[in-house]
Amino acid sequence: MFLARVTGTVVATVKDEALRARKLLVVRPLDAHGRPQARTLVAVDAVGAGAGETVYCCRGKEASFPWLPETVPSDASIVGIVDPAANPGLVAANANGEGRA
Amino acid sequence: MILARVTGEVVATQKHASQEGRKLLLVEPEAFAGARAHGAPPGLIALDAVGAGVGERVLVVLDGYAAMTAVGRPMSPIDAAVIGIIDRVDALGT
Question: What class has domain A2-95?
Answer without folding.
Answer: mainly beta
